[in-house]
Each structure stands twice: as structure tokens, then as C-alpha cells.
Amino acid sequence: MSDPLRLAIFDVDGTLVDSQGAIVAAMTVAFDDLGLPVPARGDILSTVGLSLDRTIARLAPAQPPASQARLVDGYKQAYRAHRIAHGAAAESPLYPGAAEMLGQLAARTDLVLGIATGKSQRGLAALLEAHDLERVFVTRQNADFHPSKPHPSMILAAMAEVGADRGDVIMIGDTSFDMEMARAARIPAIGVSWGYHGVQQLQLADRIVHGFDEIPGAMDQIWNTTT
Predict the structure, then answer these.
(1) Residue 1 counted as domain residue
(2) pLDDT single digits (tens) 52-74
(3) 129 and 215 in one domain?
């Protein structure tokens, strides 16, 4: 009898890539264009991982729906312009060690990799192409087709797409939204300490790691404990 197929699902922004400069810049343009006060950098980064409409609702709760919709559109346009001007690889560089870790995991025969991100499909595709990662991820779930994190839809869809059982799936992310999404899907989660939420916000994680080299071992420890 063959071993079960395991699935490791990664968040993107704040977990694999450091996109905070592009995110803050685009949000600044969106608010400036409407003559609205720009939210503090920390407030902007605290929403990374949510779908864009929920992000704007948190950052501009007093604005009417029409203004929030304009902020969403303004952010999309500004982010796209920033990507075109600077290149996807430069605007969202991989954290040091990310590519090596992904290569190590992708070489395993018992494991496939997936993505669950608040990015749009177009933005995710541009990012993966820029970093030559198109073939690394077997399943790619994004905000265009799912409710915002922490709803478990992206995880459940990834599991169904690759045929992995709940006991053989794990989520890796940097925010409380990732941890809550994993909890809602009833799978374990690994929190990374270098992202946009502090370690104190990752208390739902089964493990917290401080470097990419710790992720493969943490995954195996969790699976060996739960199986």
C-alpha cells in the first residue's frame, strides 16, 4: 500500500515574499486619490491576507460603499502600475531561503505544494512567473474565486483538487487569518515569525518557525504526531 499524498499549502504575502512596500505604496495612492487620510503602515499591513474588499472595509469603515468600491479599484490600478514599473520580482522579492525550501519540498515524492492567497489570480500568476515558480505549486487558490480568509474555502478546494485527506494537509502562513482558516478547515498550521502579524497573534498555530530551514522538519513532526 502506497503512502498517502500530503499537501502543504502556503500563504504568499508575508510568508514567501516581502510585498509590504508595494502594498503600502498602492494603498497610499488609492487613499490619496480620493483625498482621504492614508491609514498607518501598521494598520495596512495588519490586513494583509484578507480579500481586498474586506481590507478596505477595515481600513475605511466610515466610508460609504461607493467610496470603498473606488478605493478597491484605485488600489488595484496602483498595484498593477507599481508592478509594471518595477517588475513583479522587485516589488515582491522572495525572502532569503524561500526558494531553497520550496525546491527541497517540491522534490519530495510524498508531497505536493499549494497556495492559498488573498491575491488576485492575475497578480499571483505574475508573481509566480517572475520567480520561476509556476511548476512548483500543484493547486493555486486565490481571492478571485473564494470568500476571504479565514473562511476555509481555499483549503477545502485545494484538498479536493489534489485528493488529499484532512490528516495529510498543513497550512503555512504569517497571519492570524491563516491560522484561523486552518482551524476552520480542521487542519494543522505552521506560523512563520517573519511576516506581517506578530508571533503573539499566531497562537492558534501548531508550531511557530523562525526560518525556512525549520519548515520541513516542523511539517513532519506535526504529521508524525497526528497520524
Answers:
(1) no
(2) 999 999 999 999 999 999 999 99
(3) yes
